[in-house]
Every structure is written in C-alpha cells, then in structure tokens.
Design goal:
Helices cover about 80% and strands about 0% of the residues. The protein is mostly helical.
Length: about 400
C-alpha cells in the first residue's frame, strides 16, 4: 500500500477546510440575524421575514446549477473568486438597504455569490481525500460547515445585539475577505487546474440523478427544521423572554465538535444507517425540548440533542452522495447536496413561518418535528424494502 496516498491532513485539505469554515461563518452571521433586523428595523411582516431566508436559498440553488457545470469544465478558480466578490458586494449593499425590498434584492445577490463558492470547496475537498478515508475526510471537512452553522449565528447575534448592525456587516465582510489570500495559495498548490474529464450531460431521472434522489430527499427533510432555527430562533427568544437565546448555537456547536470526528469513522465502518436512525431521534428530541424551554438552562439539552443529530446525519448524507457517483460527477453530487439543504431551509422557513403566524413560535417548533419523523419513516421503509429484495434474490439464487 502507498501510505502517502492515504494521508488525509495535507496542506490542501486543511486550507480547503478553513476556507469552507470562513465561508459558512460569513453566511450564518447574517442568515440568523437579518430576519430579526428586517422585523425590528425595517418593520417587515412575518411573510417578508421568511423571504429573507428563502429568497437567499433559492438564489443559491439557481447559482449552483451553473456552478456544477462550470466545475466539470475546470472553472473552479472563477467560481471561488467571482463568488466571493459578489458576496462581498452584497454584504456592502446591506448597509444601504433602507427598505425590505432592497434588502431582499441584496440577499438574492449574496445567494448567487455564495452558491458559486460553496460548490467549489467541497468538490475540491472530495478530490484530495483518499478514497479509503472518504467518510472520515468528509466528516472532518463537514465539521467546518456544521461548526459554522453554530458559531456563525452565535457571533452574528452577539454583534447585532451588542455593537449593532454596522459591526455585524463589517465582521461578515472581514470573515469573507480572509478567504481570498488562502484561495490564491490554494489554487496554485493544486495540480493542473484540477479539471474533470469531459462527459456527456446526463438527463434528469437517469444515472447519477436516480442514485442521488434518496439522500437528496433525506437531506431536504433534515434541513426543514434547521430553516426554522435560522429564521426564527431569535424571535422565539423574544417570545419566551430568553435573554441568551444565542447559547443554543453555542451548545449545538459543542455537540457537533464532539460527534463529527466519530461520525465519519462510524460511516466508513457501519454505513449510513448507523447514523441516520439514531440521528433522527436526537433531532426529534432536540426540537421538542426546545419548544418547551422556558429558561436559558432549558436550551442546553435541546441544543446538545439537536447538535448530536444534525452533526452525525449531515456528513453521512454528503458522503453517501459523493460515493454514489463517479469522480467526475462529484461537483454534481456536492451541488445537489447543498441545493437540497438550501431548499429545505427555504421551504422550512416559509412553511414554519406560516405556522408561527397563526400559532406561536413554540408551537411552530413542535410542528417542525414532523420533518425528521417523515425522514426516519422514509429511510426505514426504503431500508426494509431493499433488505427484503436482497433476501428474495438470495433465495432465488
């Protein structure tokens, strides 16, 4: 065996992971705070607040449809730097947004830039990870995404509630700008432009699309409840008079840091089922505990349960998708993974926002439990069906 080819922690992998961490921190700093800013400062309605999250997500999805094709043609450098430039321009635009309509336009622009850069980094990471350690490698790489999903809202809410909106925008711009020098060093260190072999485009419903359908559906259902956390947790804190609602993201991050390194190894050894089934149960428990939390201390077990579930399931789904396609189609797999995540966040934000408008944010979080319950039911049905098919085939053989 060539042990050098099995090395995971290369300079390229570490740099890619750091770039992805900063990119998602920049996203999450605004994703969790702009809804509260839109309602409090721009006097947006509940529907308009949900659009702050959902329009960004739809823009990112549309952007990745272009980005996946560009990756196959070797356009990774363009995606990284053009995407970052567009995202930085959008962050600057938030400062001048004096109406909800203008804010929504800049959110869509940010989605376009983020969609470009967020497609490039995980695809490049999957190409530098040894194939035998793909689950472990994507687990560590995905830790940057999940950690940012917890640390970013914590930083963003702290800046918004402390120094104010201008400091939030400046901090977001600095985080995104830090990626640029690392990106320049990265594209020089990877060999030969990193182009994918040319391939004829596959029609939807055939080939990789069919293999990616199930994990995409499960990732979509997983992300619905997360859309409710991003869009409405700050408002839920106001409803329940919780002074330190941002602590939810802090303890969520702690759980993710603990579970992520283990989840990759569990996936490599036992497969997706060992993570998706218990992970769904943790998500359900976390949402129910959150909906009944009346004190800051009540947020801690809710955050830990949700973090254990989300932190174990998300890398399992991403690795599953990457391993379901040929190497040249990893850009497609990563694009569909991120698109199903963003689509879940967008749909979840809109649906749960409608529920909150007629009930309360506490009741909304109880209804959000239906998404992980459906995820678990779909996966178990497919798992049992496939096992029965294998048994029949073995008996007939």
């Amino acid at each position: 065996m060539n042990h050098s080819s099995e090395r995971l922690w290369t300079t390229s992998f570490i740099t890619l992971t750091l770039c992805n961490l900063l990119l998602f921190i920049g996203l999450q700093m605004t994703l969790s705070t702009l809804p509260a800013y839109a309602e409090g400062t721009l006097h947006a309605s509940a529907v308009q607040v949900s659009l702050v999250t959902s329009l960004f997500a739809f823009s990112a999805i549309a952007s990745r449809l272009f980005s996946a094709r560009a990756m196959e043609k070797g356009g990774r450098n363009l995606l990284i730097f053009l995407g970052l430039a567009i995202a930085l321009c959008a962050v600057a635009g938030y400062y001048f947004a004096g109406s909800i309509f203008t804010l929504l336009l800049f959110r869509m622009l940010f989605g376009i830039g983020f969609g470009m850069a967020s497609t490039a980094f995980p695809t490049m990471a999957s190409d530098v990870i040894p194939i035998r350690r793909m689950g472990e490698g994507m687990g560590y790489f995905g830790l940057s995404t999940s950690l940012a999903m917890s640390a970013g809202p914590l930083i963003g809410l702290s800046l918004l509630q402390g120094p104010g909106f201008d400091s939030l925008l400046l901090g977001t711009a600095v985080v995104l700008a830090l990626i640029l020098p690392m990106g320049f060093r990265l594209v020089k260190s990877l060999p030969g432009g990193h182009k994918e072999p040319p391939a004829a485009p596959a029609a939807p419903g055939s080939g990789p699309y069919r293999r990616l359908l199930l994990p995409c559906l499960l990732n979509f259902l997983l992300s619905i409840s997360y859309g409710g956390l991003l869009g409405f947790l700050a408002l839920y804190g106001q409803e329940k008079h919780l002074q330190h609602i941002a602590y939810f993201f802090l303890f969520n991050a702690v759980a993710i840091v603990v579970i992520r390194p283990l989840s990759g190894r569990i996936y490599d050894r036992f497969g997706a089922a060992a993570l998706l089934i218990p992970g769904s149960l943790f998500i359900i428990a976390g949402l129910l505990l959150l909906s009944f939390a009346s004190t800051t201390a009540g947020l801690f077990p809710a955050a830990l349960c949700y973090g254990f579930g989300f932190g174990s399931m998300q890398p399992a789904l991403q690795t599953w998708m990457i391993q379901s396609v040929e190497p040249r189609q990893r850009g497609l797999a990563n694009g569909m993974f991120l698109n199903s995540l963003d689509l879940g966040v967008a749909i979840g934000s809109m649906l749960l926002g409608a529920v909150a408008m007629f009930t309360s944010y506490a009741v909304m979080y109880r209804y959000s439990v239906l998404a992980p319950v459906l995820l678990l039911a779909v996966y178990l049905i497919v798992l049992v069906t496939r096992q029965n098919s294998k048994r029949k085939a073995a008996l007939q053989g």
